[in-house]
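Researcher: Watch the backbone:
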Amino acid sequence: MTRSLKSIISLAGLLAAIFAGGVSHAVAQSTPPKSWPEVKCERYGKAWAEALMRRGRQGLSPEFIERHEAFLASGCTTKADVCPRSTEELDMANIMVVAAMNAGTASTFPPFACRK
């Protein structure tokens, strides 16, 4: 098994464990419950932060990170336009697709697409 694949599998297992606990339902009475799209985006954002903390930003271009951060800032609603170009970006995209699926979203949820 390649080192990259081992990293993806290890991180996917960690992310699965994080999401297995679910989201806390301790919400103030005046706060309305979050919608499913909001919950998905929150879970995905946590997975992104965890992946960056564990893997770092080496090999990730400023454009890749900026476009991904814009996706998160939009509430995960903008059109997919984060194009992984380097090996490290593709590895991160693969990790995030697995993390998204572990969070209960479809594999099409993450913002990865190369239009040209």
Q: What stands out?
A: The chain has four helices and no strands. Residues 23-27 have pLDDT under 50 and may be disordered. The helical segments are 3-20, 36-55, 62-73, 87-102.
